Amino acid sequence: HLIAETANLTLDMTLFWEKWLQDIRDSQYDNGHIPLIVPDSGWGSAHAPEWNAAYVLIAWHLYEHTGDLSVIEAHYPAMRAYVDCELSRLKDGIADSVLGDWLAPGMLGNAPEGPQITATAYVYRVTSLLADMAHRTGRPEERDRYREAAAAIRANFHEKLYRPEAGGYRTDRQTEYRQTSDLLPLAFGLVPDDAVRERVANGLLRDVRDTRGDHLNTGIIGTKYILPVLTELGYGETAYRVAAQTTFPSWGFWIGRGASTLYEEWREEGRSRNHYMFGTVVDWLYRYRAGILPA
Question: Which of 134, 47, 62 is nearest to 99 (CA)?
């Protein structure tokens, strides 16, 4: 789902996504759970909303790109079962996950702050989108129910994860400032008002621009949103400097070492040199440099 929008702007993906969405529905568990890998080899039984959310997000992006509601109609019952499954798994309104902001710089797996922020943000995102899908497909009662559920997640998220003294969102496991912790609340509309939004945005900007010298510090989840969020906040030039970096961690760092494909990790010695999950910079180039985006 991280690269679905990039793919839609680059290639004709409609038949591919329609086929894969059918595969996802065929692999869905009886309780609504979506496997982490589809077709599911058995490993996919683990729970990670940042991955499982692909079902709802890819269906939404396909509709957004084509304007064709048929994919939403076809998958709405199964997507509803998935969202209900996620809502049933919340503990004190917060989601958990076996993954998180995977492969941030310096990390060989999950980021040290844990998955509470990313997992809960994605549950909020799919719940909000399901409400929008219900609205567009003539299901007003379900629209209202999922809007209420999303509003409850949003309020709880801010109450439990916002740290006024830090001016941003943090987990209890926070060991250092992590850009993704503020990027997702800003990207998904989880920040409750303009005053808090300004504080969170300023903290993010200080870290990107001043602390890290115009570098990202994000795994695959945060990398999807860092350039769009900075641009939407009015810091397009900062986003451009991040995108154009040639020192670690950056896309230019790979290119400077002869890369012709994208690596799985920011570090040069990463195990895979044919992954696309960090390729979301292309989506930003289409949307914000070229100005091409769905109406």
Answer: 47
